[in-house]
């Protein structure tokens, strides 16, 4: 597993909306948390996908990992899947672009995480919803494919150091060499606090981004998987890129899907 890709904030901001339970219909993502309208806004499905596809058109060596959950207790799985399929219908503008940009396996069923070389220029969907055939739309979100640490509730900015210790414990776990499970660690909280107070706090205690940046700066060469965070600052981004450079292939300027990218894909992505 490699901590080897930093995707753009604009794309992944909406990916993380699902973590805030902000889905207001079967498919559109809403990152408007009501009272948080000063820093959040809404985005619809076509706009989201077009932004992601446009980004990959401009940066074909990058990749986007998009976790999709069925939102709302009143939306049944059948309705969700019908709406989902409508978005990707062949012959529509978004649907035709999706055929080119959404990652699919050769047998149309994804069961293991792809390598970075396979995923360049593509969107990997993390399929966190029920389907008749798991892996049809993306990598199924289950214990066989994903290991995930996520504390969902936070009492404001209290006990941040204790929360960080739990995050660090998950980051510090050494996966087995033959493991193909995607590791995801959330430094965020879904509710109970304004995310920026968790991420960028300076007083009276350090925020999650400060803890994370120092940890990455001082860590040995380890593979951390995907780290989900809010509002990363300049120094944290620099620490991520410096760590990723340890795994850069000497001939990384070659074409997107070259044979040097044989490690399972992992990314550090952020919400902003």
UniProtKB/TrEMBL annotation:
**What sections of the sequence does the record tag as coiled-coil?**
none
Is Metal-binding one of the keywords UniProt gives this record?
A: no
- What InterPro entries does its record include? PLC-like_Pdiesterase_TIM-brl
Tell me which UniProt keywords the record has, alphabetically.
Lyase, Signal
Q: What's the Enzyme Commission number for this chain? A: 4.6.1.13
The answer to whether keyword Lyase applies is: yes
Region feature Disordered, mapped onto this chain: 251-272
GO BP annotations listed: lipid metabolic process
Q: Which residues form the signal peptide?
A: 1-17
Species name for this entry?
Answer: Ceratocystis fimbriata f. sp. platani
In Swiss-Prot or TrEMBL terms, this protein is called: 1-phosphatidylinositol phosphodiesterase
Q: A GO molecular-function term, please? A: phosphatidylinositol diacylglycerol-lyase activity
């Amino acid at each position: 597993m490699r901590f080897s890709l930093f995707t753009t904030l604009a794309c992944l901001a909406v990916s993380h909306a699902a973590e805030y339970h902000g889905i207001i219909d079967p498919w559109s993502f809403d990152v408007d948390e009501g009272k948080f309208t000063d820093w959040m806004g809404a985005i619809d499905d076509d706009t989201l996908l077009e932004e992601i596809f446009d980004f990959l058109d401009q940066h074909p060596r990058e990749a986007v990992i998009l976790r999709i959950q069925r939102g709302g207790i009143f939306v049944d799985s059948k309705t969700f899947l019908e709406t989902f399929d409508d978005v990707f219908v062949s012959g529509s503008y978004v649907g035709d672009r999706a055929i080119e940009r959404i990652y699919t396996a050769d047998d149309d069923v994804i069961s293991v995480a792809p390598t970075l070389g396979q995923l360049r220029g593509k969107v990997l969907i993390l399929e966190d919803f029920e389907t008749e055939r798991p892996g049809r739309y993306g990598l199924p979100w289950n214990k066989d494919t994903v290991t995930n640490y996520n504390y969902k509730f936070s009492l404001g900015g209290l006990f941040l150091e204790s929360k960080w210790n739990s995050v660090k414990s998950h980051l510090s776990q050494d996966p087995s060499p033959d493991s193909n499970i995607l590791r995801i660690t959330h430094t965020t909280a879904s509710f109970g606090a304004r995310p920026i107070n968790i991420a960028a706090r300076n007083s009276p205690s350090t925020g999650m981004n400060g803890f994370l940046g120092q940890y990455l700066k001082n860590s040995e060469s380890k593979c951390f998987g995907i780290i989900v965070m809010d509002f990363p600052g300049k120094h944290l981004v620099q620490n991520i890129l410096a760590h990723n450079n340890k795994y850069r292939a000497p001939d990384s300027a070659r074409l997107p899907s070259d044979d040097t990218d044989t490690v399972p894909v992992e990314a550090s992505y952020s919400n902003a």
